[in-house]
Design brief:
IMP U3 small nucleolar ribonucleoprotein 4, alpha+beta, 28% helix, Brix, rRNA primary transcript binding, IMP4/RPF1, Rossmann fold, rRNA processing, 2 domains, 11-stranded mixed sheet
Length: 290
């Protein structure tokens, strides 16, 4: 128990130090560019330009693979199985409750908790105390699931997604039975830096599968809409494989990532936010580098 506050302080200290180092590096880069392009050094940097220029001489290329707080968040991913808790917004409709039950079948070993009158802070504290690694909250509008929040514990990040085109298990014809095996993951189209961040947030909700698992979950990104599909397969002979959809199926659209857990909404820094009303918003994609 004593180790937990110490870990938290160490993590917050590293995060603050990284921010300071990044600001210092940006100042050095401005001086370096001015010298390389033979331009005037920016006014706000002139007093410390000589010191910055001196420190540039000791910098070398490389530094890839250096750990930062982002690595720290998922340090034990793949080593220990994730422990996922699923809950809903307050006063859920029967359809949202059903969707939460179906999500519980998607994540091996997941637990579902009735929301009741619990506040977000109490939920997060209970999850941290019980070793939960990820808290998922689903929201609805008039019985239709419209939002999914994935909060990684104990430090964050928290990703906010819009849910669309939700088709529940009982609405899919010729439905297969849900397997409880740990699934293989197919993750496609997440080639940008933000895309890799989002694929990590989704991927680490699942434990490492066994080789003989016949269950497949797909997250396929196209134009920043992430399609979720869930199948089981069986080999009919040595050449052919038969796929059966298990469901549910839906699309996710990321609109925000916060550095922090769900109850820190008012204070946590925003790592990324979608700005739909800028002139170029409809032309740009963020999750892939194409």
């Amino acid at each position: 128990v004593l180790g937990r506050p110490l870990r938290l302080r160490r993590y917050l200290y590293r995060k603050a130090r990284e921010e300071a180092e990044r600001t210092a590096q940006e100042r050095k880069d401005k001086v370096r560019r001015a010298l390389e392009e033979n331009r005037l050094i920016p006014t706000e940097l002139r007093k410390e330009a000589l010191a910055l220029q001196g420190s540039l001489e000791f910098e070398d290329a490389g530094g890839e693979g250096v750990t930062n707080h982002v690595d720290d968040e998922y340090r034990w991913a793949g080593v220990e199985d994730p422990k996922v808790m699923i809950t809903t917004s307050r006063d859920p409709s029967s359809r949202l409750k059903m969707f939460a039950k179906e999500l519980k079948l998607v994540f091996p070993g997941a637990q579902r908790m009735n929301r009741g009158r619990h506040e977000v802070g109490a939920l997060v504290r209970a999850c941290k105390a019980n070793g939960v690694t990820d808290l998922l909250v689903v929201h609805e509008h008039r019985g239709t699931p419209v939002g999914l929040i994935v909060s990684h514990l104990p430090f964050g990040p928290t990703a906010y997604f819009t849910l669309c085109n939700v088709v529940m298990r009982h609405d899919i014809p010729d439905l297969g039975t849900a397997s409880e095996a740990k699934p293989h993951l197919i993750i496609h189209g997440f080639s940008s830096r933000l895309g890799k961040r989002v694929s990590d947030i989704l991927r680490y909700l699942f434990p490492v599968p066994k080789d003989d698992s016949h269950r497949v979950i797909t997250f396929a990104n196209q134009d920043d809409y992430i399609s979720f599909r869930h199948h089981v397969y069986k080999k009919t002979n040595h050449r052919n494989v038969e796929l059966t959809e298990v469901g549910p199926r839906f699309e996710l659209k990321l609109y925000m990532i916060r550095l922090g857990t769900l109850e820190q909404e008012a204070t946590a820094d925003v790592e990324w936010r979608w700005h739909p009303y800028t002139n170029t918003a409809h032309k740009r994609v963020f999750l892939s580098a194409e």
